[in-house]
Amino acid sequence: MVDVLEFIDELKELQALYHSGDLRDFDISTKIQKYERQVAQFEEDLDRQEELFRQGLPEYSPVHEV
């Protein structure tokens, strides 16, 4: 929830810059890059968790199913 509130605050900052005429492409690009880094970090963490999970599981063998 905190992330959503932070995102809304940043949108409001961009809106204020737009209304004052001070909004630059750099301002928008900076925000985009920030969230792209967060998504990339999230995906890396998710991959790392999946790998750790798989390492902890015994190998599957259908012979033991019956």
Q: What is the share of helical residues?
A: over 70%
Shape: rod-shaped
Number of helix segments? 2
Total strands = 0
Structural class per helix/strand content? Answer: mainly alpha
State mean pLDDT (0 to 100 scale).
89
**Ends distance:** 46 Å
For the sheet with most strands, the description reads:
none
From the alpha carbons, calculate the radius of gyration and give it in angstroms.
Answer: 21 Å
Low-confidence runs: none
**Order of secondary-structure elements:** HH
Strand content: under 5%
What does this structure look like?
The protein contains two helices and no strands. It is mainly alpha-helical and 66 residues long. The chain is rod-shaped, with a radius of gyration of 21 Å. The termini are far apart. The relative contact order is 0.07.
Overview in brief:
The chain has helices at residues 2-20, 25-56. The chain is mostly helical and 66 residues long.
Provide keyphrases for this structure.
66 residues; mainly alpha
Map the helices and strands:
Layout: H1 2-20, H2 25-56
